[in-house]
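Work Package 4 report. The design task specified in the project plan requires that, given a folded chain encoded as structure tokens, an amino acid be chosen for each position. We show below one input record used in the internal validation round.
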């Protein structure tokens, strides 16, 4: 991301209010994420819970669209990838890492609750993608969240890991999937 030069800052200060407003509106029309960020920061009615609900709705829609595909396993992998990107987008908008973790756990819960039948498919792409995400979340919790929140997430993460380890494909993974979320002392 480019750093604004001093000349650029001076030119910005010389602009009138109307010109600044027009420039900002033009930038926001071009970039949806910038619009969402400004909407979250400037509009008083937009809360973190509302952003989380909107992101969860988009994630739910991504999975609903995936079900209509011809190759269900491949479509679910694409939906899973897009959903993870949606969670990262929500974090960039709000600058809240806990929101990203909550959305990733929501994605994992969606996969396990609604599409676990695909885990037993001949094609293992969806199971592998889900297991990789499940392996990433505990490390993310430890790295990005405060120690007090670790205990809150332990039971849910352990439940997800347990349900993935109950599948026979968990033994054939090319990476190590932890059995439970260990909280360091």
């Amino acid at each position: 991301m480019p750093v604004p030069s001093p000349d650029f800052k001076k030119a910005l200060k010389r602009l009138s209010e109307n010109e600044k407003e027009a420039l900002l509106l033009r930038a926001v029309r071009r970039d949806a994420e910038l619009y969402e960020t400004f909407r979250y920061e400037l509009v008083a009615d937009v809360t973190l819970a509302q952003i989380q609900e909107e992101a969860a709705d988009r994630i739910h829609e991504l999975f609903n669209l995936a079900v209509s595909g011809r190759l269900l396993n491949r479509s679910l992998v694409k939906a899973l990838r897009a959903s993870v990107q949606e969670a990262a987008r929500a974090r960039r908008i709000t600058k809240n890492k806990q929101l990203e973790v909550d959305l990733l756990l929501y994605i994992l819960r969606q996969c396990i609750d609604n599409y676990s039948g695909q885990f037993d498919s001949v094609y293992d792409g969806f199971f592998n993608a889900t297991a990789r995400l499940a392996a990433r979340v505990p490390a993310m919790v430890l790295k990005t969240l405060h120690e007090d929140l670790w205990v809150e997430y332990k039971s849910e993460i352990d439940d997800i890991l347990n349900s993935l380890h109950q599948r026979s494909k968990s033994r054939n993974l090319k990476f190590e999937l932890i059995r439970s979320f260990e909280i360091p002392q």
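The two ends are 38 Å apart (CA to CA). Validation will be extended to a larger panel in the next phase.
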